[in-house]
Structures are given as C-alpha cells and as structure tokens.
Specification:
Number of helices: 11
Helix content: 40-55%
Largest sheet: 2 strands, antiparallel
Structural class: mainly alpha
CATH topology of the largest domain: Cytochrome Bc1 Complex, Chain D, domain 2
Amino acid sequence: MKALAASRRHRLAPVILMTLALFLTGAVYAALAPSSAQANTAGADDIEEGRRLFITNCSTCHGMSAEGSDTVPSLIGVGAASVHFQVITGRMPMDADSPQAGAKPPQFTDEQARQLAAYIASLGPGPGIPDEETVDPALGNAAEGMQLFRTNCAMCHNFVGAGGALTNGKYAPALDDSTPTEIYEAMITGPQSMPVFNNANLTEEDKRNIIAFLVAQREPNPGGFTLGSLGSVSEGVWAFLVGFGLLIGAAVWIGARSS
C-alpha cells in the first residue's frame, strides 16, 4: 500500500493519468459517435484539382491555406458539406459585401464544387456530403416531417418553407427550389444565421422526413390559390382589400341610386 501511495505522488503521475483519460475519451467517442452516410470518396486527383480551384478562386479571401483572416472565416474543419452547399447554391464566391450571402446561379459545376469540397475536407474533419439514399424524399414520412419542420424551422422559414425576414438585413430563404441535398447540407452545417442540427438534435431519418415534407409542398395545392403561403397575413390583407372594397363599392352604389 505504501508503494502504491508513493507511486500516486510521483511527479509524472498526473501526466500519465491525463494521457490515459484522453485516450479513453477518444476511444469511447469513436465507438459511440453516431455515423452518417456521406459520399466522400474523393481521390487524390479530385483533391489536387480542388486545391487548384481553391487557389484560383477562393484564396484571395480565405487565404492560401484556407486559414481565413480577421474578417473571413477559416475553412479548416468546416467539412465537405459546407463547401458544397455554399458553392453549388452560388452563395460563394460572394459578389458583394452584404449582411448575408444570397443564393445565385453557381459559378462552378457540381463536379467542381465536389472537388473544392474534397480539398477542404482533406484539411480537417467535418460533415460530409450525404449520399442519395440519405436525402431521398421517397423514403421519408412527410407527415412526421411536417411536425418536425414546424417545431424546429417554421419560426424562420415559414410553416411551408416560403422564407421570412430576420434582423439586421438578414433573411431565411425560401426552400422551393432547394434540392434535397442542399436542404440536408444546410441542416448539418448551419449556414448564415441558421443553427446546426446534428444527429443529436435531428436524426438522419428526421432530416429525411423534413425533406419529404418540403418536397410535398411543391405539389399542386388542393386548396386552390396559396396567396404566397404566408398564412394569416396574406389572407387577412386579401380579406381586407376584397371585403372592404366590396362594402365601399356597395355603399357608393347605394348612395348614387338614392340621390
């Protein structure tokens, strides 16, 4: 017992214990961390081509090694999904300094976007690009997706994904034209003011259900004219303009007939 107590008081004991604790923590995380289906099978040629595209088109702002600056974020560790989302939606490269990078026609093909993503992914681990099965809306449940979307997303994106205004010149974009892959990538990377929804918040199945719900909103509306799908605001304005317009018209007509 005395020998054991003496070993505990050895000056190297804290270092050894800390090393063992870190090793054990890493092993437990690797064993229990949720896996996600990601199509990150880029080879050395794609990574090299992505590096060339990055140096030519992105390094002016993000630095030659993607390290960023005081005003531009580092891309090390953001993952392939973040780069693919920003590039394929045309948000990057930005065409002007503004509170938010808006979507526009992309300057790169999907292949080039994936090559850029592969290069950035080689610099540090991060969320990967999902495969087709993970984002297939046909495999999702639109009814469950509706509940999840209205609980987690509707306060910004509107209850059918029509978008809405935020503060300081920012906005939540409409999701009408977003592909399933883009929607999934946005959820796992949290672009702009959007929070990140990892698998602890929304499982892969939950995300696919949300995608199924949003895709279902693109079908013809059985209720007729959607009024922009803005809810009670547009409906109230329509009722006010039409209803009061008819009442005023009727009053004027009655007044003209009686005079």
